[in-house]
Write a structure and sequence with these properties.
With 639 residues, the chain is an alpha+beta fold. It has 3 domains: 273 residues, Beta-Lactamase (2-Layer Sandwich); 105 residues, PAS domain (Beta-Lactamase), CATH 3.30.450; 160 residues, Reverse transcriptase/Diguanylate cyclase domain (Alpha-Beta Plaits). It is built from 16 helices and 23 strands. Strand 4 and strand 5 form a beta hairpin. The longest helix is centred in the N-terminal third of the chain and has 80 residues. The chain is elongated, with a radius of gyration of 37 Å.
C-alpha cells in the first residue's frame, strides 16, 4: 500500500471517529431534549390545570358573595327607609330577616346589630338574645370605617347557636347619614368547601380559599391546620406583587416545592390557591425516564459498534451497505417509538375531551363540526355521530345563524380574531328547538389540515336565573310585590325628565291606608301585612299599564301617572277610592275587615324643579285629605 493511500485511509478513519463522536453527542442531546420536553409538558399541563381550577373556584365564590352582598344591601335599605332604629321586639324586621334568610342559599342566619354592639334582631330567635358582639370584627370594622363595603371575616363560632360560620356584614345608614347599626349574615363554611370539591382535580392536588391576611375560609390542605399561613410565600412574597399567577418549582404554601396557581379577587377579600407537590407530579416522569435509560444506552452502544465495524471494513462496500441497513433499522425503531408517543398524546387528549365537564366542540374553517364530546351531547341532546360533519349553525338559533356564519367567514384562516380566548354569552339551541344561555370561549390553531376552532361551552342557565332573582330582590318590595321606594323613584325620575323635555303632562299620587296603626294593634301585624297586599292588588287592578306603582314605606304608596293632567288624575283617584271601599279582607274568624285610604294628588307645574318637589306637594295634599276626614282625595294647588 502506498503512503498516499495509507494517509488517505488514516484520514478517513479519523473523520469516521470524529463523525461517530459527533453522532453520539447529537443522539444523546436529542434524547435529553425529548426527556426535557416530556417533563416540561407535564409541568405546563399541571400549572394550566391549577390556574384553571383556581380561576373557576374564585368565580363561583365571587358569585356566591355577590348574591349575599345584594341580599344585605336590600335589607339595609329597608331598615334605613323605616327609620325606626333597631329594637329587639320589632316583629316586622324579624319576619323580614326570616323571609330573606329562606331565599338565601348557603346562609345559616341573618342578624342586625345595634350601634352599641348589642344583638338586635335575628332570623332565628324572637326576640333576639341581648348578646354583646361589639368585639367582633364584622361589627367593629363597619362601625369605624364608613367606606368599608362588604366585610368578609374569618371562620367564627356563634355565641348563640354554637355553630361555625363565615361572617359577612354591611353598614346600615339612614338617608341623613345616621349610623343605624350593622346587617350581617352567617355563611355556612361548607358552602365554600363544596365549591372546592365541585372542581374535580387529579390525585395529589390541594386547594383552598383564604382571606388576604392568610386566614383559611375553606381548605383541602393538611397544612392549613398547623402552619402560620400569613408567613407562607403565597401571602408574604407572591400576593404583595401580583394578584394572580402560577409557580413552578418553588414553595407556595409550605416549604415543599410545588406546581401551582393562585388568584385574588378584585371585588372581595378572597384568595384561591391550588398546588401539587413537584416531586409527586414528576414521579411518573422519572419512572418514564428510567424506563428509557436502557434503550438510550443500547442506542449509544449500537452506534459505537457500528462505527467500529465501519472503521475496520469501510473499504468494503458490502459492509458499508450492511452498516447502512442497521442504521435504517435503528431509524425505523425510533420512528415507531415516536409514533407510539404521538398515539399516547392523542389518547390523553381524547380522555380530556371525554371527561371534561364543559362542552367541547371543534370545527374547521368552514364551520363543519369535527369533534363533539360527551358533555356537548348532554348539553345539546345530540349524539356525536349525528352532528359530526354538520354545520355549527345546527346548534345556533335560526335568527342568529346568519350573523354566526358571517363571523366564521370573517375569521377565515386567522387565529388572532377579536373575542378569541374570551368568554362570550350567546344563545344555544338544543335538539328539541329550545333555547338556553351559554358562555363560549373560542381558541384557534393551525393544523396540517387547515385552521381549527375549539369552543369551550358552558350552560349558564342557573347563573342567569340567579342574576334575575337578585335583580328582582333589588327592585321589588318583598311584601306587596310592587316596586320598592328606590325603583319607584328611578322610574319616576326618567318619566319626569321626559315630561320636562317634551312638555308632557305628569301627575303623582300619595296613597296612605287609614287607621293602619289601629289595624296592627287590634288584629296583629300579620293582618296588617295582608291589608297592604290586598291594597296593592286593588290599586294595581285599576291602574293603567303605563302607570307606575311603588311602596314608599309602611302603609304609604306612591303612583306616577305619565301623560295625565289633574282632571285625569282626579278621575283615576276617585275610581281607586271606590275600588278600595268595595274590597275587604276575610279574617280567620269569618268576619270581613273593611279599610279605606286617603289620597293626595299633584300635577307637574313650572315651579316643580324635580320629582321630589312634586311628591312633596302630593304629600301635603295627602295630609290635607287626612285632616279633612280620611277616605277622600285632595288635590294640591297648581304650582
Amino acid at each position: 500500500m502506498n503512503v498516499g493511500l495509507t494517509k488517505a485511509m488514516h484520514r478517513a478513519g479519523r473523520q469516521l471517529i470524529l463523525g461517530a463522536l459527533a453522532a453520539v453527542l447529537l443522539l444523546n442531546g436529542v434524547l435529553a431534549l425529548l426527556a426535557w420536553q416530556e417533563r416540561e409538558a407535564a409541568v405546563l399541563a399541571a400549572a394550566a390545570q391549577a390556574q384553571h381550577a383556581a380561576h373557576m373556584v374564585l368565580q363561583r365564590a365571587e358569585t356566591k358573595l355577590q348574591q349575599i352582598d345584594y341580599l344585605l344591601t336590600g335589607i339595609s335599605e329597608v331598615v334605613a327607609a323605616r327609620g325606626n332604629g333597631l329594637r329587639p321586639d320589632d316583629l316586622y324586621l324579624h319576619r323580614l330577616l326570616v323571609r330573606r334568610n329562606a331565599l338565601a342559599d348557603g346562609v345559616r342566619w341573618l342578624f342586625l346589630v345595634r350601634p352599641d354592639g348589642l344583638l338586635a334582631v335575628t332570623s332565628q330567635d324572637f326576640p333576639a338574645p341581648g348578646i354583646d358582639v361589639g368585639d367582633r370584627r364584622y361589627f367593629s370594622e363597619q362601625k369605624e370605617d364608613w367606606e368599608r363595603g362588604l366585610f368578609v371575616g374569618e371562620v367564627l363560632t356563634s355565641r348563640v347557636q354554637g355553630e361555625t360560620f363565615i361572617p359577612l356584614s354591611r353598614r346600615v345608614v339612614s338617608d341623613g347619614g345616621l349610623f343605624f347599626g350593622v346587617i350581617a349574615a352567617g355563611m355556612d363554611p361548607e358552602r365554600l368547601r363544596g365549591l372546592l370539591q365541585a372542581q374535580e382535580l387529579p390525585p395529589g392536588f390541594e386547594s383552598g380559599i383564604f382571606l388576604p391576611e392568610g386566614l383559611p375560609l375553606a381548605c383541602e390542605m393538611s397544612l392549613c391546620a398547623t402552619a402560620n399561613l400569613a408567613e407562607q410565600p403565597l401571602f408574604a412574597a407572591h400576593l404583595p406583587h401580583r394578584q394572580q399567577g402560577t409557580v413552578r418549582g418553588v414553595p407556595l404554601l409550605g416549604a415543599e416545592t410545588v406546581i401551582g396557581a393562585y388568584e385574588a379577587s378584585r371585588r372581595y377579600p378572597l384568595v384561591v390557591a391550588v398546588q401539587v407537590p413537584e416531586a409527586q407530579l414528576l414521579a411518573a416522569w422519572r419512572d418514564w425516564l428510567w424506563g428509557r435509560v436502557p434503550a438510550a444506552l443500547g442506542l449509544n452502544l449500537a452506534l459505537l459498534a457500528l462505527v467500529g465495524l465501519a472503521y475496520r471494513q469501510f473499504t468494503r462496500r458490502r459492509e458499508a451497505v450492511y452498516a447502512l441497513e442497521r442504521a435504517n433499522a435503528e431509524l425505523e425503531r425510533r420512528v415507531a417509538e415516536r409514533t407510539a408517543q404521538l398515539q399516547l398524546s392523542e389518547a390523553r387528549a381524547r380522555a380530556f375531551m371525554n371527561t371534561a365537564m364543559d362542552a367541547v366542540v371543534v370545527i374547521d374553517g368552514t364551520s363543519r363540526i369535527l369533534e363533539f364530546n360527551p358533555a356537548a351531547e348532554r348539553m345539546f341532546a345530540y349524539r356525536g355521530e349525528e352532528v359530526i360533519g354538520q354545520s355549527l349553525s345546527l346548534l345556533v338559533p335560526e335568527e342568529l345563524r346568519a350573523a354566526h356564519e358571517a363571523y366564521v367567514v370573517r375569521a377565515g384562516g386567522r387565529t388572532d380574531v377579536r373575542f378569541m380566548g374570551q368568554g362570550r354569552e350567546v344563545q344555544g339551541r338544543r335538539r328539541d328547538g329550545s333555547r338556553f344561555p351559554i358562555e363560549v370561549t373560542v381558541g384557534s390553531a393551525c393544523s396540517a389540515h387547515g385552521i381549527l376552532h375549539v369552543g369551550i361551552i358552558r350552560d349558564i342557565t342557573e347563573r342567569k336565573e340567579a342574576e334575575w332573582q337578585l335583580q328582582r330582590l333589588a327592585t321589588v318590595d318583598g311584601l306587596t310585590g310592587v316596586f320598592n321606594r328606590r325603583a319607584l323613584m328611578e322610574q319616576g325620575e326618567q318619566l319626569f325628565a321626559l315630561a320636562c323635555r317634551y312638555d308632557w303632562d305628569l301627575a303623582v299620587m300619595m296613597l296612605d291606608a287609614d287607621h293602619f296603626k289601629a289595624v296592627n294593634d287590634h288584629y296583629g301585624h300579620h293582618v296588617g301585612d295582608a291589608v297592604l297586599k290586598r291594597l296593592a292588588e286593588r290599586v294595581g287592578a285599576v291602574l293603567r299599564s303605563t302607570d307606575v306603582l311603588g311602596r314608599l314605606g309602611g302603609e304609604e304608596f306612591g303612583i306616577i301617572l305619565p301623560e295625565t293632567d289633574m282632571d285625569g288624575a282626579r278621575q283615576l283617584g276617585e275610581r281607586l277610592l271606590e275600588a278600595i271601599r268595595a274590597s275587604g279582607l276575610r279574617l280567620d274568624d269569618g268576619r270581613e275587615l273593611r279599610f279605606s285610604v286617603s289620597i293626595g294628588v299633584a300635577s307637574r307645574g313650572a315651579a316643580d324643579a324635580d320629582l321630589d318637589a312634586l311628591f312633596r306637594r302630593a304629600d301635603a295634599a295627602l295630609y290635607a285629605a287626612k285632616r279633612g276626614g280620611r277616605d277622600r282625595l285632595e288635590a294640591a294647588p297648581a304650582s
